[in-house]
Amino acid sequence: MTRRQRRATLISLAVAGLSLATLLVLFALRSGVDYFYTPSRVAAREVGPGVSFRLGGLVAQGSVQRGQGTAVMFAVTDTKATIPVVYEGILPELFREGQGIITVGRLEADGRFRATTVLAKHDENYMPPEVAKALKEQGVWQGDAKAPPSTSVNAGTRQK
Amino acid sequence: MIIETGHFALILALVVSVIQMAVPAYGVYYANRSLTSIAAPASVVQFLLVAAAFFALMTAYVSSDFSVENVWANSHSAKPLIYKIAGVWGNHEGSMLLWVLILALFGAAVGVFGSNLPSAFRARVLSVQGSLSVTFISFILFTSNPFARLVPAAVEGQGLNPILQDPALAFHPPFLYTGYVGFSMAFSFAVAALWEGRIDAAWARWVRPWTLLAWVALTIGIAMGSWWAYYTLGWGGWWFWDPVENASFMPWLAGTALLHSAVVMEKREALKIWTVLLAILTFSLSLMGTFLVRSGILTSVHAFAVDPRRGIVILGILAVFIGGALTLYAWRASSLKAGGLFQPISREGALVVNNVLLSTSAATVLIGTLYPLGLEAVTGAKISVGAPYFDLTFVPLMIPLLLALPIGALLAWKRGDLPAVWQRLRAVLLASLLIGALALALVRRGPWLAPLAIALGAWVVLGAFAEWAARIKAFVVPFDETFRRALNLPRSAYGMLFAHAGVGIVVIGITATTAWHSEAVLVLSQGQKLAIAGYEVVFNGAVPGRGPNYQETIGRFTVSKAGTAVTTLTPSKRIFDAPRQATTQAAILNALAGDLYLVLGDSQSDGGFVVRAYFHPLVRLIWLGALIMAFGGILSISDRRLRLGAARPARRVPSSPLAAE
Q1: Looking at the domain A35-158, which fold is it?
Q2: How far is it, in rounded angstroms, from Cα B81 to Cα B85?
């Protein structure tokens, strides 16, 4: 096999590999990603039921109801709009009213958000950046400029 | 005082690294030997100075010197000693100092062990390594000084985040950094080779052991991080496709590709230009990982630097080094002579497939990691790319890689013989399919793909042993001859056996735990029980407890299986004193067959507790497999240590017994 043929083989292999990967990536980016929405945008019906997305905001004061059993109901707010959330499972340690959180799940037909994952940070002063930004844009929360060394979004609990 | 000494040592290290960068380069240009010979001692002095600076900071942590801002912000006097030490790198400034320390260590290693490299080449390598040191030491001194004083000094520190106070996490960063920064060696060698315009098998012989060392450290570091996430975060996940995990995984993938292409280059002098590119890309991904993790643009456990200025500086550094190296590559790569020829069906060909798949998969991970950032910059939409994306892109690329692995390892160099390989692998294929069928018969639930994936894992493990059996001619020659051959095989052959078998074991572990895990969430009052995966778990109530720097509520559970008591498990919820944070401590019953994983949740008004139980079958195999891979790497390094260095020709390793037949 000549050098040229070998090069052609190598290049076609690489091209084949790359195009396969490109196809996979394009396909996966259509279906495998979650968009982030604030309660206001959900209230404005920007997203329909059955679509997986991330809902972020503050846990509304006085909204947390622990039913009998493992289901928990609470509401996520950006002060302009409030979305009720149902979650079954163990909440992260720092989940509490007034805390900035992100939940992942889908809207149900009745307008409640069924969360499969609740992410709160293992840090008292934590505000998820998406939530902080959305709240800042609405002038609700100014944030403290000197945030402490921060930690984790995936330190939450999830439910398969 | 010792802090000022450390600061001063770091400034001196900057001066020395400027000398290390500039003087040898000047010396190479004017062919002045006395100038190039400065490189090696400079690298050693630089390392000693950085080590002194690091030691000074560590002293401040151990003695809880809260007049140092960094110590005050990240430590606490009541913390156990090990976490005081780990606190050094549990923050942005200290971890950058650790980064530079390891960089200087690798530079000094070239200085000390590189006496058999051509002196001009060594000077070039050390000059490039020096330029990295200059950049990162300046970065520390000008934007992230860990030696800044706090005036007035504080009485007590703010403490380290409790979820970081964990033995696995204490040693996770040093391993990870040794991996990240270890790839700088391959980078410096690649740039030096481009600069010199010459490259040969000796280059690969030098680069391989160092890359292997970095790869081993990175493998262990990633495994530790995954293990930590598994038992700390409280829901038993072991990999999240979190951008920060990806940041360490991309260099690992590229580094794995580099190890394999360097083999081709060492043995056959082929793929030179590609190997050089891969060396540049691997370290570029490490740098990018540092940027992603340190810039604070990602939401993550690791995002320390909230100062956006630092992010921009790191981005600038990234642009200069990656852009510079790639420009140099584009300009000079054609001057590197191409090497040996081979047929597509050959060991080389198989390793090309390996490289294509590994680097493409690294690229898909890169896209998944950067796409949200790009999309937000362009459209403002915020998205998260999670497991579904990676399941659809990364996994399909791994399947052909794993299928080809045993075949490629059995092919001869230069020209392979597929029918002969088939003959050796027939039995392996049959056995793997049987194992898959056995898994199906045993479990009889879950996705239909799972038994096939188990078979794939078995195929890789058994294939690795088939390759070994072929080398020692098991069952072909008399037993004592086989035994003699097994003893005489070079250690790197055993390294390959373990590394490949480790991959298969990881695949089996991932498959089993993903497909067949089970979980139960219940509210339990004292005396109530739950059943999961054949275990019966009885809740015996919760009691308060007190640790060195936390209060806790401990749940007590007795676990029995088929009527016989197995163990008691005590998951707990902790509240740390400083900073005042709560963590969940899962209790795990470790068994090779699977982990029983208990989490104590919130208490209910009626005195019950939410209890979450998981069963993760074969999950241990994931970390065990990773350790076996790392062990294989260590075996291989111990083989090459004897001929670490390029000048001597390699001992002729019977690299391909098949070819000789």
Answers
A1: OB fold (Dihydrolipoamide Acetyltransferase, E2P) (2.40.50)
A2: 6
